[in-house]
Predict the 3D structure of the following.
Amino acid sequence: MKERWSGLLYYTKKERRAIVILILVILVARVSNHFLDMWSSPEEMIAVRFAPEMAARFTESSVDTQVHVPAFDINKVTIDELVAYGLRRGVASTWIKYREARGGYTDQSQLFRIFGIDTVWLRENRKKFMLENKVGLARTKRPEKARAEIPPGTKDTTEVVHSQVRATSALPPDHKTMDAPQVRQYQDDEGIGENVIPSSKNRSAVHEEMRQVDINRSNVYEWQMLKGIGPVLAGRIIRFRQKLGGFHSIDQVAETYGLPDSTFSAIQPLLVHSPIQDHILINEIGQDSLANHPYIKWKEASIIIHYRMQHGPYESASDLYRTRVFDSTFVERISPYLDFSIRTKKL
């Protein structure tokens, strides 16, 4: 009897290996499912767990087909009335918001653009839709812009533009307003907004009366007086200048993103240089602030700061060569922005 049971429980070497492999596969499958649940985002887990309920919800019709729908004006109907006619409240709310955004429906076909609406319901009740007033909501009119007064006896209005442009060019660089006719000015808190001259005739008149532009002091509007520079390029030049701390040479303007070489070559003779306004306190600045400079990467900033911490403050740009990392191209590029003075007094 004992030998019979021992024969039944005996497994060969191959069979034992197969059993071990099977057990390992089962364990790996269970553990992998656990880790997949941990790595899955909450949205994915919700989508998997509640897929049947969500599918059942979206397969339901957005309306109750048994509700009687009377004739109504699509520009005057309210949310509660639409709900009473069988639409879901969310769809009814979208109906009203879309109507307000358009300023009123002008055609019944516009209702098919409402997100989530049941097209079957629209086709069945299309004959009941009324349009007593095609534009149910009056559109808001923009206030008329005030125009500059033209002096009596002036025959050519471009004379007014020329005179006011000349007056504006004589104003300080931080002057942000201009009263020339047909000039729109949109300016943010930093003064880098869009200043647009919409009229091509006025733009050509401005170019004729244009003067030289200071690369470190001119505002957005003054940059747009250069031929080929619009509001987008002018804004990019100002932002690039602010990140640098100023242009130490006119050639740096050509590094502005999106500025064509042909445009820079055309405006280069009209550009004048002035001293840089913002410098980098190399012996006091932190790594994060230093890495924000367009010419200095994070790794380079880390090397500069760690060398300063280990060997003391920098005395000149030549001290950067002691790190044995930076070449002459890098040092010469950033040296005009470096200030080696120490302003913070240690107690």
Observations:
- Residues 58-65, 135-143, 145-150, 154-201 have pLDDT under 50 and may be disordered.
- The radius of gyration is 36 Å.
- The chain has four domains: 2-59, 72-130, 158-272, 280-339.
